[in-house]
Amino acid sequence: MTRARRLRLRLFRVIVLVLGGAFFLVPIGAMFEFSTRGNRVGAPRTLEAWTTIVTYPDLLGAIRDSLGLAAITSVAMLLLLLPTMIWVRLRLPQLKRTIEFLCLLPLTIPAIVLVVGLSPVYRWMAINLVDTIFLLSFAYVVLVLPFAYRALDAGLSAIDVKTLSEAARSLGAGWGTVMFRVIAPNMSGALLNASLLSVALVLGEFTFANLLSYLNLQVEIFQLGLANAGTSIAVSVASLMFAFILLVILSFFGRARARGAHERAGLPFPGAAGGGLR
Amino acid sequence: MIAAGHPDVKTARRPREGGRRFPLHWIGALPFLLYVALFLLLPTVIVVVGAFAGKDGPTLSNITDLNQQFVLNAFVSSLLISTASALVGAVAGALLAYAVATGNPRGVLRRVVSSACGVLAQFGGVTLAFAFIATIGSVGFIRLWLQDRGIDIYSNGVWLTELPGLVLVYTYFQIPLMVLVFLPALDGIRPQWREATESLGGGTWHYWRYVAGPLLAPAFLGATLLLFANAFSAYATAAALISQGNPIVPIAISNFLTSETGRNNPGLAQALALGMVLIVAIVMTLYALLQRRTSRWLR
Fold it and tell me: How many helices (H) and strands (E) does chain A have?
């Protein structure tokens, strides 16, 4: 490489990275700036927008509901997906491609389309079963399937499921013991990954809740934004930081392992075509 | 056993009796399959069937109703903003990916950028819309700063809540997605190819025009298609940002779905949704074909 070309490349890299960094950091910084503004022009910085969060009972209720949804979704996802994936690995390997395809399908179906199809189902459930915001968990489990599947698949690939289960079975363990006391503790990292991803996705979800007329955190933030922009942006920043922290923890966690699973998946790697959160 | 030849587990179970019987181990996959059938496949079927169903029996009226000016406008707006944000995101993302790929492959910069992109590519919705309102909204930080210096970015109206604003906001998650998808392709480029070009007397132009360009083109096009589908499916960001005027398809669907607007028409919503699914399916098929083509040379 010639000297001139090396210099040109370095200049190009610095310019692109600085511009990119500015484009991505400025809007987040601007939210902080906006949320600490005073009421009048020239008023000093204040944390008023942040302290008034607690004076909105609807908002606090929505935060509680969203956290509940996140917890229910994570647990339901694990209970549904983990035993199935282990079972398929051990006893039904011919079903593996089907399960994988079904799990990754929500990536390519636009969220708004799923809502259109789910709205009669939800109307039926609200009338015939019980009408509560926690019904959203049913849809959210579908929404987090692709991400959870990848995390769990990476975890299962990293351990020798077969040997572990054979050893446990030959010592007289039942299938429940094999799954929850032998295999699950050996892939705690993957379980954590899948749960954190689910929590982050559920806390940021707007489309399903808004169109199925439930008030979750994002819908409440949106409606509050029409009345009190400062506080709604303060809550946005808080929820964003929370989700960022979860996702950053996890991106440093199992990235190296997860990469292999993505390539085998055969579908787009981040596969964001469904626009889950967007 | 019915499923002959699959690697069976040797367990301490009683030996299997011969003959055909209901394969009990299929029951293990049933809860999951039922769940997916109820909450993923059933909604899809409802959309497809509903698009062709009227009050009394099958009809094409929902489909023919799509041929209205505002529906066509919505599709045109959607296609326009998806194309624009995909192109902007693809070019900017490719440049950013190149800047990262030319650095140390195990360096801190690369780790930070790919982690950040993994997070930002999933970012969107109300929070993203608010972030841009706080930045360049009518009382946004950058807008006020520029105004103090005599520059009014809204001299022709507040375009942030219109389609151009949507393109800008969408690039915020399009660029990171492009970096994630395009980085592996750039990693497949070998320095030897450049050396070979140079030893044959070619310069930078020749290298990009005849070697790297054609090799990266399928990956670049494929990634652009993925970005297109990504923007085309997005709803939450637009719902939080766009005030009125000509809506995009997801907003039009939501207007027909919720009864508040008084134009409640689930049949038309399902027809529109079917249209979206078809477009996304076509785009993703092309994407898969290009992916196959890409893997011939790279990685």
Answer: 14, 0
For chain A, domains (ranges, CATH) are 56-274 (1.10.3720.10)
| CA pair distance A232, B146, nearest whole angstrom | 25
Q: How confident is the model at residue B3 (pLDDT cuts 50, 70, 90)?
A: very low
Q: Which domains does chain B have, with CATH numbers?
A: 24-59 (no CATH), 66-294 (1.10.3720.10)
Per-residue confidence (pLDDT) for residue B299, from 0 to 100: 54
Q: What is the pLDDT of residues B187-231, one digit of tens each?
A: 888 888 888 998 998 888 888 898 888 888 888 999 999 999 999
Report yes or no: B119 at the A interface, CB cutoff 8 Å: yes
pLDDT in tens, A72-104: 999 999 999 999 999 898 888 888 889 999 998
Say how far apart CA B296 and CA B278 lie, in whole Å.
28
Q: Which residues of B touch A213 (CB under 8 A)?
A: 258
Reported ipTM: 0.83
Residues of chain A neighbouring B232 (CB-CB closer than 8 A): 110, 275
Per-residue pLDDT averaged across B250-261, rounded? 79
**Of the candidate ranges A147-151, A269-273, B14-18, the one whose mean pLDDT is the lowest:** A269-273
Give the C-alpha separation, B139 to A169, whole Å: 66
Query: Does residue A158 belong to the interface with chain B, where contact is any CB pair within 8 Å?
Result: no
Whether the Cβ atoms of residue A87 and residue A158 lie closer than 8 Å to each other: no
Q: Could you write out the DSSP letters of every residue in chain A? A: --HHHHHHHHHHHHHHHHHHHHHHHHHHHHHHHHHT--SSTTPPP--HHHHGGGG-HHHHHHHHHHHHHHHHHHHHHHHHHHHHHHHHHHT-GGGHHHHHHHHHHHHHS-HHHHHHHHHHHHHHHHHHT---GGGHHHHHHHHHHHHHHHHHHHHHHHS-HHHHHHHHHHTT--HHHIIIIIIHHHTHHHHHHHHHHHHHHHHT--HHHHHTT---HHHHHHHHHHH-HHHHHHHHHHHHHHHHHHHHHHHHHSHHHHHHHHHHH-S-SS-GGG-S--
Say if residues A254 and A191 touch (Cβ distance below 8 Å): no
Q: Dihedral sign, CA of B7, A190, A102, B290?
A: negative
The torsion of the CA quartet A137, A139, A142, A144, rounded to 10 degrees, works out to: -60
Using a CB–CB cutoff of 8 Å, tell me whether B221 touches chain A.
no
